[in-house]
Amino acid sequence: MTIPQSFDLVSGPHTDSWVFTLNDFNVSTTQVHAMRIADSGSKRHAVYIPAALGLFGLGDLLPELNASSPAAAASSVMSSAPSETRAQDVVQRLKQRESVIHSAARTDVLFQREAIPSADTNVGSDIGVDANSITYAELLDVTRPDSAYVSLDDTSSWISAVTEQRANTLSGDDTDSEPRVRFSPFHMDEKERANIEAVKICFRTGVTTCIPCLRPDCNAVLFNKREWSCSPSSRPQDFINVLKKPMASRPTVSVHAISGEASSSLPLPAVLTAPIRLDVVQQVHKSIAKNKRQAYSVNVKAGHQTSAESWGTGRAVARIPRVGGGGTHRSGQAAFGNMCRGGRMFAPTKIWRKWHVKVNQNQRRFAVVSALAASALPSLVLARGHRVEEIEEVPLVIASGVESFKKTKEAVALLKTLKAYNDVVKVSNSRKLRAGKGKLRNRRHRQRRGPLVVYNEDNGIVKAFRNIPGVELVNVRRLNLLQLAPGGHLGRFVIWTEAAFGLLDEVFGTFDKASTHKKDYLYVILAFFYDKVHGNTHFFAPISLPTAKISNPDVTRIINSDEIQSVVRPANSKHQKRPWTQHKNPLVNKAVLFRLNPYAKTLRRQEILKQERIKAKKDQKRTKAPKAAGDAFLKTLFAP
Amino acid sequence: MAPTTTVPSVSDIEVPETLLKKRKQNEKAREERVLAAVAARKAGKAKRKVVFKRAEAHVKEYLAKEKEEIRLKRAARTAGDYYVPAQAKVFFVVRIRGINEIAPKPRKILQLLRLLQINNGIFVKVTRATEQMLRLVEPYVTYGEPNLKTVRELIYKRGYGKVNKQRIPLANNSVIEEALGKLDILSVEDLVHEIFTAGPNFKQASNFLWPFKLSNPTGGWRTRKFKHYVQGGDFGDREANINKLIRQMN
Predict the structure, then answer these.
(1) Residue A14 lies inside a defined structural domain of this protein
(2) What is the pTM of this model?
(3) Residues of chain A with a CB closer than 8 angstroms to some CB in chain B
(4) Fewer Cβ atoms within 10 Å of its own Cβ: the N or the C terminal residue of chain A?
(5) Could you report the per-residue pLDDT of B195-230, keeping only the tens digit for each?
(6) Tens-digit pLDDT profile for residues A28-81
(7) What's the total number of domains in chain A?
(8) Are residues A331 and A323 in contact, defined by beta-carbon separation less than 8 angstroms?
(9) CATH assignment of the domain containing A377
(10) Which of A565, A592, A602 sits opposite B21 (nearest CB)?
(11) ipTM given for this complex
(12) Would you tell me the crossing angle of helices A278-288 and A361-375 to the nearest 10 degrees?
């Protein structure tokens, strides 16, 4: 891994930033190098420290770095140029921390310290603990040694603090193509450091968090859900480039007042933009729907409450067990078999049949998220059968005042103004007697499902709406897949209250933010390790709100785009043309012969010419002038 | 300019972007195809010239060889010596017997020689090893040294090549060129030459040729097929008489 030289040293906007590059590109792991990067007068210095030193506060290693201002600190480092004594000094101190070094030798992480706006906050043995930031110790609350998780509340506030700070400092920047990672350095004690295996860097906000297991003997990283590896040539900033997504602007949904017209608006929660996976929803729904089942079985003793025995052979009857005794019709009758009247059934049903199906938590959440996203598409809601042709907007959000409704009359009136009452009418018109024995088993009627009202706080809304046929109510924190996708069919008509709609972002998190109501439903936080042995860089991300596998689903447009068409070869014809499959004999068919052997033509020609010449000569020889008859002959002929 | 009717006229409808793109692509593809065709034709003509020259050279070579043989024979006769012609370099082997009741070793050898069917024929280079193989399968095959005419006629009439494991007729020189081009065999005549003169790439050339599927001979086999040729049958080495048989079987 080479030093990313361009990493903010020369071109960054911060005049006071340092880069700590933890990299053991040097053979010796305990050398310290200080280099000065000249940059048109501004005092920026880089201190390169090998990875073996780890991620830790370097305050005690290089006390000069704790000077009042970073520039002063760096210059003090610089003024004493790498000299023997100084280096030895550092080596000494390093050796005292040998154990710490080895445990962290695996990681190569890039850090950049951000300039602290106010000059006086650089105090203490930490390197510039920000007044705004929480120290790691606080974060982890080390007084509770068995706490294994970073409290997400703290993290999010910490992160937002850092994000703000970053936003502030970046607001005046020129366009800087190099990504940067920032961290708020933290103070840790020996024990924590020894247990650290990984550093987590949030690439979105540039914040690092260490998530070690605080048990002294445990070296595990605490959430290790998925791990991906990258090509060996990746540099850290390549990662950052790859993973950085532009923050898309979110559409808004208008909130309808109780009187019906749109009043304010809310941004669309990220959940409603999640991918809609019908396969996941169907599978999860199928499994979850089985969880409310009650066991049934036949009586254990059924069919066996006789003492029947087979009569054996020799009595002109079948060998099936027969009821003994006498004095009643039953005696001599067959018993026990599944084919016998009054016998036990084949494979009597048992109550220990597996009635319930366990579904993975993340699958369940995925399905709910998908179903929610589907409820935001009017076409899907219509396709499911809800009568929502006339409503103003999907998703339908009503002002929070509705949560204090007490009277069903009010509720009905509201639904009518929202034009959602047609759905309720549909339900009441569809109320019919159930076919079959369910009638006698307290399932007498069947009807369609109406709107699902999602609220944040029940101040009477449940009682107001619950008697309306078809309407179901649910708290936004407890959304149920069986209600969001009844029958496994996506697109339930959902009526949100304003408070509930706004809470969706917190319940499910967004692509940037953790979920506060669900444990482990986190934002995209990543860690990466550089495996020096194999030269691989690994990073991983835990579970969060699902993203689509393909970000631009218009595949036709992608295929026909210039970028692809310019490198694509022209399409072959749909049907492959068969070559002429009749074999023609070259010994007979001259055209084929000449096609195969062009010289054959000249050979043939020469042959023909030769034959003609021979024939001509023969003819010449044969055609001689007829000789005139001799005198003796004529005399004899004409003799008298 | 809003039209007066709701039915749009041709000028109102905009051509979809993908359609325009496709038209452009098709134009480009057509031009490229035309250029490629012209270039291919030129290349084809050049190739034909090469093939012609080579065929001419081969014919000369064959004539020269024949004349040489005759000259040597005559020289020996006049000197009172005996001229011993060179041993055969190539044999043509034809399988005489069907597939049932063959002992394992001859069966394996027939498989190695690619004679898997009755009346299958192949060209085999004559070496100590192949001679021994033929000796082992003698009761099931007949073989001898083929003529130039035999070789030519076999390849022209019943020549198929092994292309991509398929049996493809040698309808074009391109079939041969694509398979054996890197061995400098570009046409049927080159192939004939390679086989007849047992050239350096004989193995690849004869392996390229699918085993010849010959007919039963017109005029029939001898009365008992499964005696050695010298005993009045048909199997074994029949030296130059193989040509007569192939004339009947081709």
Answers:
(1) no
(2) 0.52
(3) 556-557, 560, 562, 565, 570, 579-580, 583-587, 592-593, 595-600, 602-603
(4) C
(5) 999 999 999 999 999 999 999 999 999 999 999 999
(6) 323 333 333 333 333 333 333 333 333 333 444 444 444 444 444 444 444 444
(7) 1
(8) yes
(9) 3.40.1370.10
(10) A565
(11) 0.89
(12) 120
